[in-house]
């Protein structure tokens, strides 16, 4: 099966009740057309798209994922949307849970194929790790993350935008010994080695920094402590919960006060479905939520009215981070 057939098989999912109604077999053809046109389109270095919780299952039967067969389609539709943007974003960041449940090599191979049209269009893709990922399998398919990380053994990346550094940390709290298909710790952590590197990086930098990871800040006291003494950290963005939200996080309520804006991203799996678009400038970052649906735990032909109400409530949602 060649690459085109491989991706096309994902788009011909049986069982309409499991597939978003907007998904059509011509999505792949349109993506190929958009990729071909990309070199002629302007790219904005100050524009980035934020995705999370794509949960791709690479175990296929008759061309369909054995688990969550609608997830590849949902991701493909987001990719089509990204490639239709004008100007194109220079960066796309994925905030972990790349794999469906247990971080299998096949999951990452499939995810790499699905995400490749973005890279073919000249867009840089940066991946983070979540609790459903596994480092050994991830590094096998994406060895550049093991080779280029500033913290050995962790998938840490710095995306240097013109006005701000976006730092993707590795919050996967992986158990030391895992059997195949064994779940690991659901909650997250940023270990001491990452904190030591982050402390040094932030102390030497005069640029604002947006910190990112898969898990909520409240689960990671070491990171919270570091933010409390790092005035150049202007925001924290994460995934994991599958809902869009924008909440101020109080680190110190007494003088000197320290509050940071946190942003929780939608998923392409279940919950809030969509992505966030981040516009940056010398003054700050504006993060807009692009809502494309809501379902729980899977899409439905006749969804409850509450699902549409959630989508309606999420229109024109955005948050600003000040530099």
Features:
323 residues, Purple Acid Phosphatase, chain A, domain 2, 6-stranded mixed β-sheet, 14 strands
Your description of this structure?
With about 325 residues, this protein is an alpha/beta fold. It has one domain: Purple Acid Phosphatase, chain A, domain 2. Helices cover about 30% and strands about 25% of the residues. The chain has helices at about 5-10, 25-35, 70-85, 105-120, 135-140, 145-150, 190-205, 220-230, 305-315, and strands at about 45-50, 60, 65, 90-95, 125, 155-160, 165-170, 210, 235-240, 245-250, 260-265, 270-280, 285-295, 320. A six-stranded mixed beta sheet has the order 5-4-1-12-13-14. It has a six-stranded mixed beta sheet with strand order 6-7-8-9-11-10. It has a two-stranded antiparallel sheet with strand order 2-3. Strand 10 (about 245-250) and strand 11 form a beta hairpin. Helix 2 packs parallel to helix 3 and helix 3 (about 70-85) runs parallel beside helix 4. The longest helix has 16 residues, at about 105-120. The N and C termini lie far apart (about 50 Å).
């Amino acid at each position: 099966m060649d690459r085109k057939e491989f991706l096309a098989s994902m788009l011909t999912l049986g069982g309409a009740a499991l597939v978003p109604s907007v998904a059509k077999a011509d999505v792949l053809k349109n993506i190929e057309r958009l990729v071909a046109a990309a070199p002629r389109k302007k790219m904005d270095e100050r524009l980035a798209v934020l995705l999370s919780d794509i949960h791709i299952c690479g175990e296929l039967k008759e061309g369909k994922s054995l688990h969550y067969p609608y997830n590849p389609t949902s991701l493909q539709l987001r990719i089509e949307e990204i490639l239709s943007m004008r100007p194109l974003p220079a960066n796309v960041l994925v905030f972990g849970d790349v794999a469906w449940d247990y971080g299998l090599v096949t999951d990452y191979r499939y995810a790499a194929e699905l995400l490749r049209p973005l890279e073919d269009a000249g867009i840089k893709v940066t991946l983070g790790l979540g609790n459903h990922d596994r480092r050994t399998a991830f590094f096998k398919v994406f060895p550049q993350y093991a080779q280029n990380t500033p913290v050995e053994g962790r998938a840490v990346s710095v995306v240097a935008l013109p006005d701000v550094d976006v730092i993707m940390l590795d919050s996967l709290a992986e158990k030391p010994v895992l059997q195949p298909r064994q779940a690991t710790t659901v909650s997250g952590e940023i270990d001491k080695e990452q904190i030591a590197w982050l402390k040094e990086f932030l102390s030497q930098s005069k640029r604002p920094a947006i910190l990112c990871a898969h898990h909520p800040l409240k689960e990671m006291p070491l990171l919270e402590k570091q933010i409390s003494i790092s005035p150049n950290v202007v925001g924290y963005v994460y995934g994991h919960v599958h809902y869009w939200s924008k909440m101020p996080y109080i680190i110190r309520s007494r003088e000197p006060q320290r509050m940071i804006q946190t942003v929780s991203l939608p998923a392409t799996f279940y919950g809030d479905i969509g992505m966030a678009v981040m516009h940056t400038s010398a003054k700050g970052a504006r993060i807009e939520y692009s809502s494309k649906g809501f379902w729980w735990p899977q899409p439905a032909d006749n969804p409850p009215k509450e699902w549409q109400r959630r989508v309606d409530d999420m229109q024109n949602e955005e948050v600003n981070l000040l530099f």
